[in-house]
Amino acid sequence: MLTQLTITEMKAPFVLPELPYGPDALKPVLSRETLDYHHGKHLQAYVNTLNTLVEGTGYAGMNLEEIVRKAPAGPLFNNAGQVLNHTLYFEQFHPVGAEGTGSPKGKLKDAIRGFFGSFEGFAKEMASASVGLFGSGWVWLAQDGQGRLTIVQCPNAGNPVTEGLVPLLGFDVWEHAYYVDYRN
Ligand code: MN
Q: Which of 54, 85, 131, 160 sits at a 20 to 30 Å CA gap from 172?
């Protein structure tokens, strides 16, 4: 994922973050067509709208995470949240079979085992939180200031940074994330 530093460097005018892999890199899980729509169309639209909304306001000088933390509920929060969420989302993937992929290792592996019993137990909880989220939204694995891991369900454009948590892994549960490959 992106580091906190990178997110805090993102300021207006926002630009579409480049995918850190090729358009076919995530096949067969996510097709080129899905990435084209999701990244090139949906995320681009959030970026464009966010730029329009912050222009000439006090939010123009803030970084993306600050905007998400401070924006009132409504269009500004929704578009800033979706730019933050999708930046993290697209950054967290690696091509199938690439070095470093597979289940977590090191500190994260130990933390997941400590809080969820096993990686399989964590995966099950993440999946049921995603399936159980009513409507569009996001499910995050997040960490608090004491290092505790938690799974957070957020409706719409929500991100756990608004609760003072650090997002580690995000599932996009909007239908636009998967409908091209998996239908409804
Ligand atoms: Mn999405």
A: 54
